Amino acid sequence: MAAVFAAALGMAEASRADSAHEDSDLIQGTWNLIELNNGGNAVGTDDVDGTLEVAGKQATIKVKFPGNDLYEKSYRFKLYPYREPKAFDVIWEDGRVTRGIYHLEGDTWYRCHGEPDGDRPTSFENLAVTGMIRSLWKRPEVKPREKPIP
Predict the structure, then answer these.
(1) pTM across the whole model
(2) Any idea what the Cα angle at residue 29 is, between residues 25 and 31, rounded to 5°?
(3) CA–CA distance from 99 to each of 7, 73, 89, 111, 144 (Å)?
(4) What are the tens digits of pLDDT across the range 54-112?
(5) How far apart are CA 43 and CA 47, in angstroms?
(6) Cβ neighbour number for residue 93 with a 10 Å cutoff
(7) Distance, CA of 74 to CA of 51 (rounded, Å)
(8) What is the DSSP code string of the chain?
(9) CA 96 to CA 10: how far, in whole Å?
(10) Cα–Cα nearest to 45, from 30, 32, 56, 28
């Protein structure tokens, strides 16, 4: 019986690892900020310019608000795609951890998180009550090359 349990546990861990690897592959590359909601206050994307570059288990976020300097930070991250909702941790250079949740839908990536070392959100709703930050990211549209005229 112990062998059966160990085998089942091993299969579950392998499935979790595959799921984390799959989502990690899906988020690689460049993402553009489309929508930002900070604690229930929507910030117009006409006012904010943001990109997120993901390479391996590292990411760099760059956000520019009008009248402010460019905010640029790099961090490591860990995904938990087997949780409901899917979750992530951002590990900052100073060791603090920002806990969040995410949802991937093709080239659309929804993220919601709190402050470093704060609680993990449980949903993408009730931002005004929880003070969480929700963002919507999309991959840049890649235009096909026109074929040269022979």
Answers:
(1) 0.78
(2) 115
(3) 31, 16, 5, 10, 37
(4) 999 999 999 988 888 899 999 999 999 999 999 999 999 999 999 999 999 999 999 99
(5) 7
(6) 9
(7) 12
(8) -HHHHHHHHHHHHHHHHHHHHHHHHHT-EEEEEEEEEETTEEE-TTT-EEEEEEETTEEEEEEE-TTSPPEEEEEEEEEETTSSS-EEEEE-TTS-EEEEEEEEETTEEEEEE-STTSPPPSSSS-HHHH--EEEEEEPPPPPPPPPPP-
(9) 31
(10) 32
Residue with tokens 């938990």: 80
Show the tokens assigned to 27. Answer: 């988020």
Q: Enter the tokens of residue 43.
A: 């910030």
